[in-house]
Amino acid sequence: MLDYRTMDSSALQAEQGRLRQAYDAFAKRGLKLDMSRGKPAPNQLDLSMGLLAMQDYKDRDGVDMRNYGALEGAAEVREFFAELLGAQPGETIVGGSSSLNLMYNMVDLGWRKGFSGCAPWGAQDKVKFLCPSPGYDRHFRISEDFGFELITVPMTPGGPDMDAVERLAQDEAVKGIWCIPVYSNPDGYVYSAETVRRMAEMKAAPDFRVFWDNAYLVHHLTDEALSCPNMLEACRDAGNPQRAMMFCSTSKMTFAGAGVCAMAADAANIEAAKNYLFAMTICFDKVNQLRHVRFLRKEGLAAHMQKHAALIAPKFDAVREAFERELAPCGDIACWTSPKGGYFISLNVLDGCAARVVQLCREAGVVLTGAGAAFPYGQDPRDRHIRIAPSYPSAGELAAAAELLCLSVRLAAVEKLLA
Ligand SMILES: Cc1ncc(COP(=O)(O)O)c(C=O)c1O
Question: Whole-model pTM above 0.90?
Fold first, then answer.
């Protein structure tokens, strides 16, 4: 194979003909695959079937979890999630099945009641949120839903570009930042200690909040368990104890959409959150909370997550190998991340080609996340980023999808270079 950049137009045209033939043959295979979301595969969900057999309903103090009560979660459940998030049980609230739901609630709390004695965000002239990008589309969607102005901040392998974050946070209208500190969605990056320190220490509005979504904190793909410093502690050390709101859930430990979520923050935020939730509900599903904690303690969380890794790491490897085999020899038409955990790989293709690649894949039967989805307002300014979610397809399906993806990346690149 040749470096596309060094090929003249007749060589590129010949390559286009070859690629088109291979692509058309692929399209005839009638593949039908949806890789648009990072979902656990059925065999991963099977790992937690033991949950459904559990009949536990009394916590260790004999409190009946089948009944109303304990809005903030049963004591033993709070302890489990506090340890996971790196907080005290009293600083932890265990919620329903979705951490995204809880994040939405906390943005709504800022909107309707305000934080740190400041006017509610909804009563302020303008609210802006920092969106490290590429990032998680559903974070951006929450802030968009409230009518905030979304500000793109570039991601680096050590987290968001902190020079930009520090500069932007000086604006009093900037009220929050979305962070996925460990195995970020979609790059798979882990925030550095310096990023954490600078974000905790920087000058920002008193009601500025760091939405610290630790969705992938134990979702390692290798034996190297990467981690990042605790944002709540860093904010406390920096004299900004109310700045951090940390979240996690078991969605990708047990059942996605039927797990348990939790948040941790300093006492003032927890009090405000409890008041907010009190108006909304009597309590969350404590039967599910209890069986989750008992199940994950029995299994051993690390051992349970290793079983997940054994199923999905080979899928990440297969995608990476396909990229190295099919794309690397073509020169600089694509680059990709090599995450050591999480659920995604970022693939960057030639500027102006991502939407075309997604279209080519869709027309041949593989649905990818829409191009631009990982950027505020769904718009990738360079139209080059594609989020790859390898977890759900079977190994065979994934091999076919990766082959089609590589063909599409090459075809789109040749089209671009010939245009
Ligand atoms: C970074 C991140 N946060 C949150 C979620 C959703 O979590 P939950 O199921 O707890 O709402 C996802 C799901 O893909 C995610 O990638």
Answer: yes
